[in-house]
Specification:
single chain, binds magnesium ion, six-stranded mixed sheet, 9 helices, nucleotide-binding, alpha/beta, binds guanosine-5'-diphosphate, two-stranded antiparallel ribbon
Length: 275
């Protein structure tokens, strides 16, 4: 594939690509304000205005907006803390569908969604009594031209990196995406690898074990998802929200949230819940 660079991080052992588990609090303070729109992303739509937290909140160690009082999101929902999550991966792996499934609980089949693309959607989750707003950005088709703006990565607190289990090339490209992420994302970005479309059992060409092995090699949590059936979709975003919330609000005596363990415990196999 044309975008494939020599994978610098390959074979580098756990955590070389993103090292979410070994990230030190404070490393991300060089990052941009969490709710400012990425330069390259299509900023159209009412939601593209920066959220109140950017102005009212104080910045935490990892750059999260931490307003002293709850802020009001553009959708009219109050939240305590806000983060940016970005979806990355080859065109056609299901990024837009994953976002729509998470936000609206629906699956949009057909070709129109892949051509239209959306900019971002907000969703407020309740994490242990704290209202966590995730501002989830879609690449709006930029990935088709291998030209995802580098600012897009820089603003991200978390990245969901997707491949399609029915498309070997999308899996083979994961290393190239990881190289890109390693180069341009914040050092302490929360990263998760998702193998999407597991409802398509007949067409599957990438085994779950292959995804697990790659994820282990790079030290990133992994799960298989289906935007169509909804399998593990909420879990992927909830796990990210929990990790980000714990990082930004951890009390001195509180034990660290262990994202890997949480994912392992909560993840459902593709045999379950198929539509
Ligand atoms: N079977 C199945 N198809 C999916 C799934 N997610 C997305 N698709 C389909 O894959 C195509 C590309 O999805 P899209 O979300 O546009 O991919 P994107 O380019 O990564 O944003 C569309 O035709 C979707 O209907 C899934 O979980 N299962
Ligand atoms: Mg899309």
């Amino acid at each position: 594939m044309s975008r494939k660079k020599s994978p610098k991080t390959k074979g580098g052992g756990a955590g070389t690509a993103s090292a979410p588990s070994s990230a030190l609090p404070g490393q991300g303070s060089r990052g941009a304000a969490p709710t400012a729109a990425p330069k390259g992303a299509a900023g159209a739509g009412a939601g593209a205005r920066s959220a109140p937290a950017a102005a009212a909140g104080s910045s935490t160690a990892n750059g999260a907006a931490l307003p002293s009082r709850p802020s009001l999101s553009s959708s009219g929902e109050f939240y305590d803390v806000a983060f940016k999550v970005m979806l990355v991966g080859d065109s056609g792996v299901g990024k837009t569908c994953l976002l729509v499934r998470f936000k609206d609980g629906a699956f949009l089949a057909g070709s129109f969604i892949s051509t239209v693309g959306i900019d971002f959607r907000n969703k407020v989750l309740n994490v242990d009594g704290v209202k966590v707003k995730l501002q989830i950005w879609d690449t709006a088709g930029q990935e088709r031209f291998r030209s995802v703006t580098h600012a897009y990565y820089r603003d991200a607190h978390a990245l969901l990196l997707l491949y399609d289990v029915t498309n070997r090339a999308s899996f083979d490209n994961i290393q190239a995406w990881l190289t890109e992420i390693h180069e341009y994302a914040k050092q302490d970005v929360v990263l998760m690898l998702l193998g999407n479309k597991v409802d398509s059992t007949q067409e599957r060409v990438v085994k779950r074990e292959d995804g697990e092995k790659l994820a282990k090699e790079y030290g990133v949590p992994f799960m298989e998802t289906s935007a169509k059936s909804g399998l593990n979709v909420d879990l992927a975003f909830t796990a990210i929200a929990k990790e980000l919330k714990h990082r930004s609000m951890k009390l001195p005596n509180e034990p660290r949230f262990k994202l890997h363990d949480y994912v392992k415990k909560e993840v459902k196999g593709a045999g379950c819940c198929r539509s």
